[in-house]
Specification:
CATH class of the largest domain: Mainly Beta
Radius of gyration: 44 Å
Shape: rod-shaped
Order of helices and strands: HHHEEEEEEEEEHEEHHHHEEH
CATH superfamily of the largest domain: Neurotransmitter-gated ion-channel ligand-binding domain
CATH architecture of the largest domain: Distorted Sandwich
Helix content: 25-40%
Number of domains: 2
Length: about 450
Amino acid sequence: HSFISKVWKSSLSCLITLSPSLCLLKCKEGHSGPTYESLQTVIDRKYFRPAVNLSNPTISNISFTLYAVLGVDEKAQILTTFLWLRLYWVHEFLVWDPEECEGVTKISLPVKDLWSPDIIVYDVDDDVSQQCPYVYVNHTGHIRYDRMLRLVSSCNLEIFNFPFDIQNCSFTFGSYMHTSKGYTMAPLHHEMSENSKKYLEASGEWELVIIQGEPGILKFGIDEWDIITFWVVIKRQPVLYVVNLLIPSTFLMVIDILSFYLPPHSVDRASFKMTLILGYTVFLLIMNDLLPSTANGTPIIGIYFSVCLALMVISLLETVLITNILHSMKCHDVPRWVQVLVLGYIARLICYTQDPPDRPEGDSAMPPPLEAPAQIVNGRNAPTPIPRIPELAQISADLRLMRTHLASVQKESVLHEQWCHVGYILDFMLFRTYILIISMYAFVIICMWCIWYRQ
C-alpha cells in the first residue's frame, strides 16, 4: 500500500487537473536531459499503464521488416521467418521541454524499467526472440521499441502450382492481457513492403510480393481484444527447379520420342526403352527430395512425372505387343474387328495415310495348275489321256509341292504385311499421343511461368 501511494502521489496533480504542464519531467541546469529523480518517478510506475486518464486506451503502432524466409516445410505446413518487429506507443509521463533540457529531444532507457505492451503472435508454434535492452524515447513521450524475431508459424501452403507457387501466410499480433478498452493497435504500412523486398532480394528461393495489414477484433465472451493481421505474400523463384527437374525430364522424354523412329520389329528398340525407363526411375528417386509433398494434395509437376513414367511403360508394352504381332501373329488372319477399329477408325483419327508396301508383281498370282489337252469325243470335249511315265509323274508331284509352298509363303507374306500395317498404325498413334501430351505440358508450364512473372 505504501508503494502504490508513493507512486500515485507524484502524479496526483496530473490525474486531478489533467494539465500536461504538471506532468513534464524536470531538468536541472547543467544536465543534458531529464534528471535522475524525475526519471525514477516514472520508473516506479512501470507496472501501470502510462496514461493520465485511464479511460483513454493506449494507442500503439506496429510494423515489421521481413529479413529472410528461413524455411518452408510443406509437409508440416510450417513457415520459418526472421523479421524485425517495431513498436510505437506514447508514454504520457515521459514528456519534457527540450528548451529547459539543453535541446535534448531523444534519450534511450532500459526497456525493463518502463511499461511496454505485451505483444504476442497468435499463430506461432515457436518464438525465438532476441530482446533489445533499450528503447528510444522522444521528448513528446513517443517510444520506439525494436525486437528481432525468429518465428516458426503455421501457414496453409498451396503446392499445386509448384515450382511456380505463390504463398499467402498471415501473422496475427495482439495483446495478451489488455483488452481494447485499455490498449488498441494500428498497422503502420510506411515502407514496410519496400524495406522487406530490399532485404529479401538476396535471400535466394523466395521473393516478397506485398505485405498488407488489417486490424480486427478478437472476442472471448464479453471481452474484446484488438488484433492486427499482416498478410505476407511470397512467391518462389523457380529457376532452380526448372534446371534440376524440368529440363532433365524433358531430355529423357525427347529421347523416348525419338526412339519411335527405330524399326518397330527391332529387338534393340525394346532394350533401348527399358534402359530409358531405368534412367527415368533413378531420376524420380533423386527428384523425390526436391519435390514437396503433403497429405492435402500433390503438385502438378509430380502428376506430370507420373504420367511421363506411365507413358514410357505404355510405349514399352506397345513395343512388346508390336514385336509379338510381327513375329507370332503373321500366320493368323487379321480379325475383322481389328481391321474395322485399327485400319478404319484409328487410322482416320490420327490421319495415317501411309500404305503398306506393295507385293512384287511376280507374287501377285500363282500359275494355274497344268491340265491335260482336250480332245473331241462324240461331239464333246474330253481330256486327252497322257501316258503314265514315272519321270513325268515325279516332276508333277514336285511341282505341286513347290506350288503349295509358294502359296503358303505368299499367304504368310500377305498376313505379315497386314499385321505390319496394324503395328505401324498403333505405333504412330502412341507417337502422336506423346507429341500431344508433351505439347500440352509445355503450354501449361509456359502459362504458369507467365502468371507467376506477372504477379
